[in-house]
Design a protein that fits this description.
single chain, alpha/beta, four-stranded mixed β-sheet, three-stranded antiparallel β-sheet, 465 residues
């Protein structure tokens, strides 16, 4: 993969998405004036909500209210950056899927023209789905007659496309609720305008990265790294605020290093029990352990299980980022399941629900990790989106606990109380917890035991990696 195009596009995309989301937030009467949050009061009359001269459907009032509450909690800039990143993730996910045969149920491209259509018509992008709106309405849960009316109007392509794109997000919510929110989520209000114009934020996503670069799910990690690269440059070497920690600490690990780590941990554990396994031939970066003294060999044999059931292997990445290590672990675990003659159609679900666990302090990164794992599973099971998968990928967000609808969930305050590391029932933030665990060297075994219980894992044993 040539990452030069991604490196060029992603930082520009961040600035464009932030600007577009900020403008959209202004339309709903939320402003940052002189670094002071200002919120206008709406006026609702019948079916119309008026905000600073802009008219909206009154049905949007509850979502707009939730939006203002989030602005008060996070601040204008933090909210804009969060939502911009969320929409960037969602659109990248759709772009990845639309280039794969049958990943989207209706089979049409959502963000780009069909290959035969070329660049589009007139002055804007004409996504393929727009030309087939009446046919995809039912698949996206939209009212067909309303969609047909918008289509026949001839001058409402922007409104029509907005409904189609949001409908696509709602449809994907069933399979990936951690990335695509439920119906009427307030972030929908901040989906940028002018999506069908030549200067649409979609243009760079479609034209800036060649289609061949979207073939491997590894692109998700590179997009993550380069999207926040400018912010990393801004904060590195300074006193870092809590919200800037993900940018300051992110690092996308090259694929060969990931393979080395996975093959010499998960792979080694398997080969210690099954030294004649054919798995060794598939691991290019595996290093055969050096011959040990007799006493060491006896000690190793004593702690090496005589058999391992694939479902009991637990791979935990406590700083999973966009999921690069988890994805590589998926590949190796798949080979293990195949060696034990599991049915191919059962393997993806078993791996996602039994073997792979990830944590990150950036909820947007956790979204991408979950998406990357789902895409790996989709390569092996075309019906994976309908199997109600429960991913074990969590975002550890300061003050908010573990976040993510559809993911395994718990709250940091409860975990802190359960740990009770110093013998007193304290409540703290994630920075306090990691400070105690990492720097005060308290009872690590107690920590990992309780974390395992929160993840509903069996007792902590040697097969954990």
């Amino acid at each position: 993969m040539n990452t030069n195009n991604i490196k060029k596009y992603a930082p520009i995309a961040r600035r464009e998405f932030i600007e577009a989301v900020g403008k959209r937030l202004n339309q709903f009467g939320v402003y940052n004036k002189g670094n002071t949050l200002t919120i206008s009061e709406p006026t609702v009359s019948g079916s119309v909500m008026q905000i600073d001269g802009n008219a909206f459907d009154a049905g949007l009032a509850p979502a707009r209210k939730r939006l203002t509450i989030r602005a008060e909690q996070l601040g204008f800039d933090a909210l804009v950056e969060h939502v911009a990143y969320t929409w960037f993730n969602r659109l990248c996910a759709i772009r990845f899927m639309e280039l794969k045969p049958d990943y989207l149920e209706h089979g049409f491209r959502v963000l780009s023209p069909s290959p035969s259509q070329g660049e589009g018509r007139g002055e804007g992008i004409i996504p393929e789905i727009l030309d087939h709106a009446q046919y995809v309405a039912e698949a996206l849960g939209l009212e067909r007659n309303h969609i047909v009316e918008l289509k026949l109007a001839g001058n409402k392509d922007e409104a029509l496309y907005r409904e189609l794109l949001l409908g696509q997000c709602h449809q994907l919510h069933q399979a990936m609720p951690f990335l695509f929110e439920a119906l009427d989520d307030e972030t929908e209000l901040l989906l940028p305008d002018n999506l069908t114009r030549t200067d649409s934020i979609l243009r760079g996503l479609v034209d800036g990265i060649p289609e061949e670069d979207w073939e491997q799910v590894e692109i998700i990690g590179w997009l993550y790294q380069f999207y926040i690269s400018e912010k990393k440059d801004q904060v590195i070497g300074k006193v870092v605020k809590s919200e800037d920690i993900p940018a300051a600490t992110q690092l996308f690990t090259p694929n060969w290093i990931v393979k080395y780590l996975v093959q010499n941990s998960v792979g080694r554990q398997w080969l210690m029990t099954y030294p004649d396994s054919g798995l060794k031939a598939q691991m290019d970066y595996y290093i055969t352990p050096a011959e040990q003294e007799a006493a060491v060999g006896v000690a190793l044999a004593a702690i090496t299980p005589t058999s391992i059931e694939p479902e009991t292997i637990k791979v935990i990445d406590p700083a999973c980022g966009s999921g690069h290590i988890l994805v590589e672990a998926y590949n190796l675990l798949k080979a293990i399941y195949e060696e034990r003659s599991y049915r191919s159609r059962d393997i993806p679900k078993l791996i996602l629900e039994n073997n792979l666990y990830g944590l990150d302090i950036d909820d947007r990164a956790a979204q991408l990790a979950g998406f990357a794992l789902m895409m790996k599973a989709r390569e092996d099971d075309r019906r994976i989106f309908t199997r109600d998968i429960k991913l074990n990928v969590l975002a550890l967000v300061e003050g908010l606990g573990f976040r993510g609808e559809g993911l395994a969930g718990c709250y940091l305050e409860d975990l802190w109380a359960a740990l009770d590391l110093e013998g007193v029932r304290k409540r703290g933030e994630n920075l306090d917890l990691f400070d105690v665990v990492a720097h005060r060297s308290l009872n690590f075994f107690k920590v990992r035991k309780i974390v395992a219980e929160y993840f509903h894992l069996p007792p902590w044993k040697h097969q954990y990696t």
